UniProtKB/TrEMBL annotation:
<dbReference type="Pfam" id="PF13581">
    <property type="entry name" value="HATPase_c_2"/>
</dbReference>
<keyword id="KW-0418">Kinase</keyword>
<dbReference type="InterPro" id="IPR036890">
    <property type="entry name" value="HATPase_C_sf"/>
</dbReference>
<dbReference type="InterPro" id="IPR050267">
    <property type="entry name" value="Anti-sigma-factor_SerPK"/>
</dbReference>
<keyword id="KW-0723">Serine/threonine-protein kinase</keyword>
<dbReference type="GO" id="GO:0004674">
    <property type="term" value="F:protein serine/threonine kinase activity"/>
</dbReference>
<dbReference type="InterPro" id="IPR003594">
    <property type="entry name" value="HATPase_dom"/>
</dbReference>
<keyword id="KW-0808">Transferase</keyword>
<protein>
    <submittedName>
        <fullName>Anti-sigma regulatory factor (Ser/Thr protein kinase)</fullName>
    </submittedName>
</protein>
<feature type="domain" description="Histidine kinase/HSP90-like ATPase">
    <location>
        <begin position="27"/>
        <end position="124"/>
    </location>
</feature>
Length: 142
């Protein structure tokens, strides 16, 4: 995929302002089941099941991508709230590498998570700070 094609699918942009709800520092994919469980415990009473599944899917996909491909260093993940939805954001130390959805790959080989997130999200994007890449998706409340 060319840089321009990746940019059109996952644009470089800042996320909307949002209020912190949940946050994690992750070092290994083995931590992801506990993260998913915490999201279910906190959000299940107030979020419908379809929206909750989408939040967990996006968070899990973005966090696992960061842990597998994000270079050396900490991975931070968070869920924040806005008036219209839930902002899922994950950062890793690969500030120079934008998120790149898989192209021309057999779906059985994986790599389609960014496509799924883009289709579910109200808005999505990524930006780089001095030391990190931040990938985000704003998911609807219901």
């Amino acid at each position: 995929m060319t840089g321009q094609a990746a940019e059109s699918l996952w644009p470089s942009s800042s996320p909307p302002a949002a209020e912190q709800l949940l946050q994690w520092q992750l070092a290994d994919v083995a931590e992801l089941p506990a993260m998913r469980g915490r999201v279910r415990r906190v959000l299940q009473p107030t979020v419908d099941s379809d929206a909750l599944d989408q939040i967990i899917l996006a968070l899990d996909e973005m966090a696992s991508n960061a842990l597998r491909h994000g270079g050396v260093g900490p991975v931070e993940a968070s869920i924040r709230t806005t008036d219209t939805g839930y902002l899922v954001e994950v950062s890793d130390s690969a500030a120079a590498r934008p998120p790149t959805p898989a192209v021309d790959r057999d779906p059985s080989q994986g790599g389609l998570g960014l496509y799924l997130i883009a289709r579910m999200a109200l808005r999505h994007g990524w930006y780089a700070s001095a030391r990190a890449k931040h990938v985000w998706a704003l998911l609807p409340r219901s």
